[in-house]
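FORM 7B: Structural annotation worksheet

SECTION A. Query
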Amino acid sequence: MIRTPRQRATRHQGGYILLLVLVAMVAMMLSGIALIRSMDTSQLVAGNLAARNATLSSADVGMQNAVAWLQANSGALNDDAATSGYYAEEAEPVWSSSSFWATCTTCVTTTPDAAGNTVYWAIHRMCSSSGSPNAAGNFCKSVAGSGATGGSMSSDAPTFTGTAAYYYRITVQVLDKRNNSTLTQAFVTM
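SECTION B. Predicted structure
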């Protein structure tokens, strides 16, 4: 009986190709899993950026509400009105404290906006104490009026003349649907 080359080759195969193919399949499977996880992470980052941008848009609305409150109450800014979110002296409260934001009942959106965000705001006059900005010992941060008014523009000067515009710090906290908090601050003069 004469043996053909095909019969001889079959006898010498040890299954190395099968092992090589299995290793290649495991490597392809691991790279596929890594690709899927990478896409999931990218989607989470994109979602977080979109949520942050939505809170910044909501913070603008809170700023506008606070400025409108300041303009409507411009004659009564010497004393605290905590239930309205106004403090006549500068302070650094614990911004993350829910009890601070709970004191103001009128400076919060009662219903979430279109993005599902709840907006709170607070205003601090940048003075060392409440009361008249011209009172002795009350140091207020202000910007001078026009140069034509003359005289000192310091709020604690004995011969204060001219009209100063005082600084107010508006702080807006936005809580999103995931209960993440974003704080935004701006300074305005009046």
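SECTION C. Observations
Residues 6 and 50 are 65 Å apart (CA to CA). The helical segments are 5-12, 16-72, 98-102.

SECTION D. Sign-off
Analyst initials: ____
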